[in-house]
Each structure stands twice: as C-alpha cells, then as structure tokens.
Amino acid sequence: QVQLVESGGGLVQPGGSLRLSCEASGFTFSGSCMYWVRQAAGKGLEFVAGIYRDGMVQTYEDSVKGRFTISRDNVKSALYLQMNEMKVEDTAVYYCAKDRQGRTRGQGTQVTVSS
C-alpha cells in the first residue's frame, strides 16, 4: 500500500532553514504529481507546494513563494522541501501527500519556528 514517510522537521529560529524529506513507496512515484501540505495547530490542512511528475513544474502557496523550494528524485522515490527565511507563521506539521488536498499523506513532521 501507499507509504509516505516524512523526516527533517525540528525547531528553527526565525530566518533559519530546514530541509524536509519524504520517502515514498507502494505506488509509481515517477508517475505521480506530489505535494507538501501543512497543518498549524487549530487549523485545517493547507497546500504548501506541488511538483509535476518530471519535476519541471512547481507551484507554491503565495506566502512561501521565493522562500521554499520543492524538488524530487524519481530514482530514489523521494520528495524534498527546502525551507529558507522561515517565519513564525510557518510553524505546523508538514505532510508529504499524493494529492493537493492532503487526503493521502504521511504521518507528518513537526516544524517549529521560534526564537
């Protein structure tokens, strides 16, 4: 079955960087658009970034444009999210997902931005 395992979360100061990783299995990764979504405490799931099957096209939520970069390695079946210039409002649980709404997602990794 589909398995998505995120890693790389943690505590970072405002202005800092983190790189999230997701290992995928149980489906044809290279044939799937992939996404990162997040959920802040007390809020719903929010689209963060998406990437086309071949990695050539990426889309971003407006608040992360220019700061976050989504990428993928189809040989390793891995998805990444490089997060730079992080802000307190980026604090959330981040999920790797097979769809933009996050219906099929991993267990998540906590990202906390705080001084």
Commentary on this structure:
The chain is globular, with a radius of gyration of 13 Å. The chain is mainly beta. Helices cover 0% and strands 47% of the residues. A hairpin with a 4-residue loop joins strand 7 and strand 8. The strands form two sheets. The protein has a six-stranded mixed β-sheet, with no helix packed on it. The chain has a four-stranded antiparallel β-sheet with strand order 1-3-8-7, with no helix packed on it. The protein has strands at residues 3-7, 10-12, 18-25, 34-39, 46-51, 58-60, 68-73, 78-83, 92-97, 109-113.
Oligomer: single chain
User: Alpha-carbon distance between the termini?
Assistant: 40 Å
Using only CA atoms, what is the Rg? 13 Å
Strand content: over 45%
Sketch the topology as an H/E string, one letter per element.
Answer: EEEEEEEEEE
What are the key terms here?
about 120 residues, mainly beta, four-stranded antiparallel beta sheet
Please specify the SSE layout and strand pairing:
Layout: E1 3-7, E2 10-12, E3 18-25, E4 34-39, E5 46-51, E6 58-60, E7 68-73, E8 78-83, E9 92-97, E10 109-113
Parallel strand pairs: 2-10
Antiparallel strand pairs: 1-3, 3-8, 4-5, 4-9, 5-6, 7-8, 9-10
Brief overview:
This protein has strands at residues 3-7, 10-12, 18-25, 34-39, 46-51, 58-60, 68-73, 78-83, 92-97, 109-113. By secondary structure, it is an all-beta fold.
